[in-house]
Amino acid sequence: MRVLGVDPGSLVTGFGVIEGEGSRLIHVASGGIRTQASTGLPARLKTIYDGLEDVIARWHPDIAAVENIFHSHNVQSALKLGHARGVALLALVNGALDPAEYLPMEVKKSVVGQGHADKEQVRRMVQVLLNHRCERGYDASDALAVAICHYYSHRTHQRLDAQRQDQRHARVMRAEPRHPRGRRRKR
Catalytic residue at 7? Predict the structure, then answer.
């Protein structure tokens, strides 16, 4: 299963594509969609959208996830990040993907085992899990962490769904024949 993870940002939006087979994870691609700080916000948002469209067209992910906004002390930064996140979600939906969303703490807990891990810890663990050296900066490694988190979560949900299906089937097979009016038949 191919998974795309996105770490939105108004200056650099990180993306990471992984391939998962059982417990094995493989790095496919990662990088950052860079925008110019000197250009206006609408032009930067278009760059992010176009960049994610290219990533989707090139790598054909099966599922995708975006990191959610946690909180920000600067209102302007939070608004710009919200715009970038919205554009990322739109690009994924237009690419026929149904994106999941994860809080940074969920991603960190899934990848590192601790929700308050710093970016360097996340980066190192991503490198270990994927056996891939991440480029400088944290945008790509954060996006890869989102992809890993979503792969683990999706795999767990698939297992639980299969287990529930098996349990339902077993209940149906164990059920005794019933009288047409709902009473049990006497033996």
Answer: yes
